[in-house]
Amino acid sequence: xxxxxxxxxxxxxxxxxxxxxxxxxxxxxxxxxxxxxxxxxxxxxxxxxxxxxxxxxxxxxxxxxxxxxxxxxxxxxxxxxxxxxxxxxxxxxxxxxxxxxxxxxxxxxxxxxxxxxxxxxxxxxxxxxxxxxxxxxxxxxxxxxxxxxxxxxxxxxxxxxxxxxxxxxxxxxxxxxxxxxxxxxxxxxxxxxxxxxxxxxxxxxxxxxxxxxxxxxxxxxxxxxxxxxxxxxxxxx
Length: 237
Hints:
The protein has 237 residues and is α/β, with parallel strands linked by helices. Helices cover 33% and strands 21% of the residues.
């Protein structure tokens, strides 16, 4: 499957009405908060796999923002969302930037789509300046409730997820690229229902409350296994 307009309307972006307070909106707000907390104001920030531009669009008031995506259609659509960001069409596995170019690099739910995610993370290590920050998120094969979902687990639902790996494998790649993890966390249990006989809305309230609180506050506190994604914040050595 190609990453085209159809992909953005049927998979990760199924919630893509872009309505304020949608799950997509809260996710972008959360990662923008992390970038502001750990990054250096006014410095250069890159989002690898910037999609439709809604995350870097939130960060233009804080950083000198750059976005890149493999999808020409997505980059074109982004131009209606961002005002000052520099946008490029490029591969995460071959970043078109010089060494030590960025203070913050965000790669959110991209590495699982790549045939060689280790190369992409090494590329990020190359373009991140010493002391700079990497923010990475990807589906969490170590999720405590993944066995409850079996083949219906959210990470298995997208056929373009060709590089699902255990958390330790991602951490090894990150360290091998010259980063030291500062926070290793998760995003909560939002892939309801987990229990067939209980109404979905009740499960969303029960299982999703901690992840929702984390998303609203921007404070990263959930243990690595307590969610459907692993979130890693790391500093370049």
